[in-house]
Specification:
globular, homodimer, 13 helices, alpha/beta, seven-stranded parallel β-sheet
């Protein structure tokens, strides 16, 4: 997940008076009179965190760094881009590590200049998803502007099917570059596809302030996380550790997802992200360095932050939709 | 190009009594009463060599190493795999280096375990080219056994079209892993597609001993190279330099193509080729090290070997088919 929406939402997190105020924007169904942490079996003041790596499958460097971080125990979850060429590598890992918490990072964009991918479905079936060169559009707003929603839905469902064919049992869904949060029709489709697959998906209370179309599309079976942490281009490289440290120190009770983009700043990743410093090779190396550091481990411990996975969230969905 | 055919052809080269003997197997049209070197404007005893890098577009490591080798002047030509994800990188290079000699390495296989690609055409149009996971078949014989020839031809033509859309002006055609040399029907298709595109394609006199179906399919407009050098798995890593040295020292007059597979043995290439030592990361590093060495430069000079490109061969095709 990357994109403009989250530049805004992080800002909103900082100005929002309280989680309760935002929570109050939805008409709450009975099953949610308990807070999300309580529904998960924790005391009301528990600080639960999903540390989530995005973009697996996109590059060998990203797979290697993400696997190393997952195995450090400090990253608890990740999501996979099915149309990308390194999918078979992460699928092999998922098959041999069935305990790992992998979702699908549903992908309707191909954003790098020198290294690109197309849809899972053939271009004859999903012409509206493709740029002039036959790849997925580079940007989320271009993708959203051109797409036929039926084609997008067919492609998303095909991505889920291919993941399952390769032995990935996804625990959750989210959207690469936030394309599926670009508007009501797209978000409605994500809700529908997630429901049909009995899977939770990434959606967070504080987004509703900007995306007012969201709450009315969510039934009582949908689990909404309390908030999202996502570092953005306005943070200087030298402030990386400071940003994350402040976020952990000021973490409020509830379920927060911290989205990170992991990779090694090697030749492959530098080549792939050339021309993009945002979410580029050095960015991903900084994220990797921080989330696998003893500083991060100590911060989580000292601030009583407990890591959880999407698997726990998924159980609530199963209860609501048996 | 990789594959069984060439294990055999290299052996054949060593036992063939002379180029003339093989040449005699074809009924020669009038335009070929001159030798190929003479038609190219060189004296009959000239030793002409195309040093050709295969598999461009397959990985960033392969692109980087091949570009470096081309720029050393010791590799004269290369061919590009259009369905691969790093195509845009090499296409950008081709656009900015219109003098570089790039052909298309027509691709109907996706042979690595952890990193794979599909066809340019959608899977609904070319179902016979795809394995159970929706990628091109791993092996050339599997691909050949399953394919509908009309689908294969449509895919090959789509690869040429996509290359041109991206600004690549191919100088020649050849076939990744030799799939299009797997039998009469496939080879006939290659001849047809090359003719329609007014392009020369890789075919070599000494292949005819094994592939007896070939000569009758070649019209007078087809240029047949005199021989091929291609290192094979029976050469031990420590004998790499010795193999190439012997080949250059014993080079006979005529046009020879020396096929090399270049890459850096970095994390990307090790990941991509994991489980394959043949044509793997270390193999490609050894090829790179040799063809960019001063030893190779000196050998070419001392043995009066002149490097040429496919562009010169292509002019003969244009003359024959104005």
């Amino acid at each position: 997940m990357r994109g403009k929406l989250f530049v805004v939402t992080v800002t909103l997190m900082l100005v929002a008076s309280s989680a309760t105020a935002l929570h109050g924007r939805r008409s709450l169904p009975k099953s949610q009179t308990k807070t999300l942490v309580e529904r998960l079996g924790y005391p009301r003041d528990a600080k639960l965190l999903i540390v989530h790596a995005d973009d697996l499958g996109a590059a060998h460097s990203i797979n290697s760094a993400s696997i190393k971080a997952l195995e450090s125990g400090l990253v608890s979850s990740a999501s996979i881009m099915v149309p990308c060429p390194w999918l078979p590598e992460i699928a092999a890992y998922a098959r041999s590590h069935p305990e790992a918490d992998f979702g699908l990072h549903l992908t309707l964009t191909s954003e790098w200049n020198l290294y690109r991918w197309g849809p899972v479905l053939g271009k004859e079936l999903v012409p509206s998803l493709l740029d002039a060169n036959g790849y997925l559009y580079p940007l989320e707003n271009e993708a959203a502007a051109h797409m036929d929603i039926k084609e997008a839905e067919a492609e998303i469902r095909a991505q889920i099917a291919r993941a399952r064919t390769l032995g990935i049992q996804p625990t959750h869904l989210d959207s690469h570059m936030g394309t599926l949060y670009e508007g009501k029709t797209l978000f409605e489709m994500l809700v529908r596809v997630a429901r049909d697959n009995k899977l939770p998906f990434r959606v967070s209370q504080e987004w509703f302030t900007r995306a007012s179309f969201m709450p009315s599309l969510l039934g009582p079976d949908v689990v909404v996380l309390d908030r999202t942490i996502s570092i953005e281009p306005n943070v200087a490289p030298e402030d990386w550790s400071k940003f994350y440290t402040n976020e952990i120190k000021s973490l409020r009770p509830g379920v927060t997802v911290m989205i990170v983009h992991l990779g090694f700043a090697d030749e492959e990743l530098k080549g792939m992200t050339s021309g993009h410093s945002n979410w580029g090779a050095e960015w991903r190396q900084r994220d990797f360095d921080f989330v696998t550091s003893e500083v991060f481990r100590k911060l989580l411990k000292e601030n009583n932050v407990k890591l959880i996975t999407w698997r726990e969230i998924g159980k609530l969905v199963t209860v609501a939709r048996p």
